[in-house]
Amino acid sequence: MTDDTAVDDDDVNTIDDDDGDEDGNRLDGGTPLAVVTYLVHAIASEPEAVVINTEERNGTVRFRIHVAPDDMGRVIGRRGRVAQAIRTVVAAAGARDGVQTNVDIVDD
């Protein structure tokens, strides 16, 4: 039994390798921003009060975290251990994107 049907080139599905990531269209620090947002919202008892400001300079993305006054101790942790852990994880996410990161927890 043979199949005599011809395959037309127009019927073949092609994979387009263009993912739409053009220069100037990608947010630098997108992955670290998502990571810091996730972590701080998970730690804070009032996640709706969390505000993260982003500033980019010379290939470094700076995150300034503002939390409710009651959450300040939770986000910083004893001897700054939670804050340092956040900085470490965000730096690893930034390294994946090829950007350096700086995380500051701001007391209003």
Could you give me the name of the CATH homologous superfamily?
K homology (KH) domain
SSE run: HEEHHE
- List the total number of helices: 3
Radius of gyration: 22 Å
Explain this structure.
This protein is α+β, with helices and mostly antiparallel strands. It has one domain (27-106): GMP Synthetase, Chain A, domain 3. It is built from 3 helices and 3 strands, in the order H-E-E-H-H-E. It has helices at residues 30-43, 72-76, 81-97; strands at residues 51-57, 60-66, 100-106. A 3-stranded mixed β-sheet has the order 1-2-3. Strand 1 and strand 2 form a beta hairpin. It is globular, with a radius of gyration of 22 Å.
What's the arrangement of secondary structure elements?
Elements: H1 30-43, E1 51-57, E2 60-66, H2 72-76, H3 81-97, E3 100-106
Parallel strand pairs: 2-3
Antiparallel strand pairs: 1-2
Helix pairs in contact: 1-3
In short:
By secondary structure, the chain is α+β, with helices and mostly antiparallel strands. The chain has helices at residues 30-43, 72-76, 81-97; strands at residues 51-57, 60-66, 100-106.
